[in-house]
Structures are given as structure tokens and as C-alpha cells.
Fold this sequence. Notes:
- The protein is an alpha/beta fold.
- It has a single domain, classed as Rossmann fold (3-Layer(aba) Sandwich).
- It contains 10 helices and 5 strands.
- The protein has a 5-stranded parallel sheet.
- The chain binds adenosine-5'-diphosphate and thymidine-5'-diphosphate (TYD).
- Thymidine-5'-diphosphate binds next to helix 1 and helix 5.
Amino acid sequence: MKKNLFIAFEGIDGSGKSTQAKMLAKRLTDEGHKVHLTFEPTDGTIGTLLRNILKGAVKADERTIAGLFLADRLDHLLNEHNGLVKMLAEGYTVITDRYYFSSYAYHGVHMDLNWVIAANEMCATILRPHINLFIDVPTSVCMERIMSNRASTERYENLENLNNVKAKYNEAFVLKAHEENITHINGNRSEHEVADDIYNMVCKLMLMP
Length: 209
Ligand code: ADP
Ligand code: TYD
């Protein structure tokens, strides 16, 4: 039985990743697991700069943004305070809301996907998720959710871009199918239906040798 897992949630903006990551973390915590729930961009120095760029408060080129997300990810993995390598070694199940497939999908729209994958290879070598959970929701539904719940939208949150991002996710999943555990979940259902599916998948994974 695996003691603790590294679980990455993926999906386009508004697909319900944060909701599901929180629900899974609560359920596992209630069962007595040690759980570390985290996200990218992080709330560290580089992640904070990225959030300002996403809001439009700071200007940056797409290539710069791709480099900053990589730096933020390395810090997420390696920082001495609560880096994911340390948390996993201490026995926590780590649940992250976005990891390197987000970079493949969002930056692959603007630059060569193979470059983005190669640039992130070090992260995959340091920590590869036991499972990448892709919450699949039509882009139009995601846009409706975003528009009805927020006063403003961020850099990548428009229908045309989200369609492109979704296509890049699919391209990356095909390219990486041989070495990544990727599971698609129909996220266009009630929060509880989606959460039950995810929980059952994670339980199966925990029991695998
Ligand atoms: P993400 O982290 O992928 O951007 P969120 O979890 O923040 O998505 O959800 C985006 C919005 O959609 C939130 O307002 C949330 O309450 C809502 N939402 C999440 N899951 C569902 C669902 N299954 N059905 C309808 N609305 C949902
Ligand atoms: P997030 O806060 O997860 O947004 P949401 O909850 O709306 O999905 O992520 C913020 C944005 O950062 C989102 O538009 C996707 C983008 N992003 C990248 O462009 N590259 C990356 O490597 C990551 C992790 C996120």
C-alpha cells in the first residue's frame, strides 16, 4: 500500500479544480491522512509576481511568463520551508491545484510545446505525480462559471484562449501517455458526483502496490 500520494489537479480555468482539490483534501484529512493542499502559481515571491502579471498589473512577455512559472514550480518543489519534496518525505499526501501540465497547456499555446516540456523536465525528474486528474468541462461552461462568479477576468480567461489551452492539454496528454498517469474526469456534473469519482480513484491508487 502506498503510504502517501502526490496528486495533481489539472483543467482549464473554471473547471472546478480548486473546489475538488479542497473537497478531496477534507475527505482524506477527515479519514486521518496527513494532507498538504497546495497550488500553482504559489503564494511565494515568484508566484505573487505571476499573479500580478495575470491580473494585468505588471506587463510581461509570454516567454518570460513561461520561465517564471518554471522558477515558481522549482521553488514549490525545493524550498526548505514547505517544499513538496520535503512534505512528501514527511509522509504528507500532497494535493496540488495545477502542476507542469498547466505549463504545457497554457504556454504551449504561445510557444513550442516541446520546448515547454523540455524546460520542465527537471520538475518531472524531481517529482512525477502518482496521478494527474484532468477535470474535463466544456469551455463555454467554464466561461459561464467564471463570468458569473467574478468581477473581472484574468489574462488567459477568454473563450478563444481556453479552447486553445484545452487543445494543448490534449496534445500534451498524447505526447506524455507513455510515462504519465493521466485520468480524465467528467467535471460537468454536480460537485459531489465529481468528488465521489475522484475519491474512489484515489482510494484505488492508495491500495496499489
Ligand atoms: P478552478 O479552480 O478550476 O478555476 P473553481 O473550483 O474555482 O475552478 O470553480 C469555479 C467556479 O465554478 C466557482 O464559483 C465554483 O463554485 C463553481 N463550481 C465548481 N465546481 C462546480 C460544479 N461541479 N458545478 C457548478 N459549478 C461549480
Ligand atoms: P489558477 O489560480 O489555478 O486559476 P483558476 O483557479 O482560475 O484555474 O491559475 C491562474 C492562472 O495561471 C490560470 O489562468 C492558468 C495559469 N497558469 C499558467 O499559465 N501556467 C502554469 O504553469 C500554471 C501553473 C498556471
